[in-house]
Amino acid sequence: MTQRPDHDLAFLLRYENIAWYDEATATVRILDRRIYPVRTEFVSCQSHQEVALAIKNMVTQSYGPYTAAAMGMALAARECQGQSSEEQLSHLLAAATTLSTARPTTTKQMRRITERQIALAQKALTRGENRLDLLLKQEAIRLLDEKYLAIERQGEYLVDLFPQQGAVMTQCYADTVIGMMLRACRRQKKDITFYCPETRPFYQGSRLTASVICDMDFPVCVISDNMPSWTMHEKNIDIFTAASDVITGDCHVINKVGTFQIALAANYFGIPFYCTGDPDPEHPTCADIKIEERDPEEVLSSLGKKHTMPGVKAYYPAFDITPPEFVTAVVSTRGVFKPNELAKFWQE
User: Each residue of 109-120: pLDDT tens digit?
Assistant: First the structure.
């Protein structure tokens, strides 16, 4: 590989600006996406437990927690360096549980990351290697390489569906998909304006998605979360696209809360909804999906400022579920599939 897959992408998508294990200081440095781009600050985690807490507290979101967990495993390996092989493996297994369960809705997907790190560590311990932290850091980087290269294909598939000139609405922060989508727009010379609902209460749409789009020199317009329907009507939106935290085998899409209502509006106006992601073999249906309910206090304030009267209560589901009848197609790393054809993903 002559250059890393994150070349020419926005600041937010550079590996070191997501989560990075620094062996010199024995810390994991995570860009604080809760405040970017107003301030560019990093949270320095001294232990794998602090990495898990950063994931839980939304210091990083979208695919960021997966990278943080992988780098957190490298830090966990540093914590038990010099102990017996049995003690090191026991410590890493405990760290894997702590990191993968930091957010409940994506636990199964997170476990795939930590289990891969555990398998690598077991082999290394058998060989008598003594710097598991460096080994697991390199594995975390390989995971990023694999993901970026796969999503680069996905970005091409998605942009193939865009008009030559038009308007696209997003939802929340689709992470690498956004960068690869924009890179594909450049290659295909498509002139697209993007509309981003802000995604309260953490404003991922306005702070993260819009920042990446602006950073990569595409026109972008932020709207508040109650504006998508009218914006679709007035701005002639051509396509609605969002990523997914989970896509079930029967094509229910679990994503940032608000996705369902935008999909409903898109359906009303005849606007296609293209969801990006791969179906999850561990979730054939949405029956066992646990929708995370976060601290309602996060709804009662905005960027650290309380804006409600004492005694007012709140409710904060972090995700919602869009049924397959409102999904035009799933844009996966293996191609584009209609909801009733999703089983073909496994046959390709």
Answer: 899 999 999 999
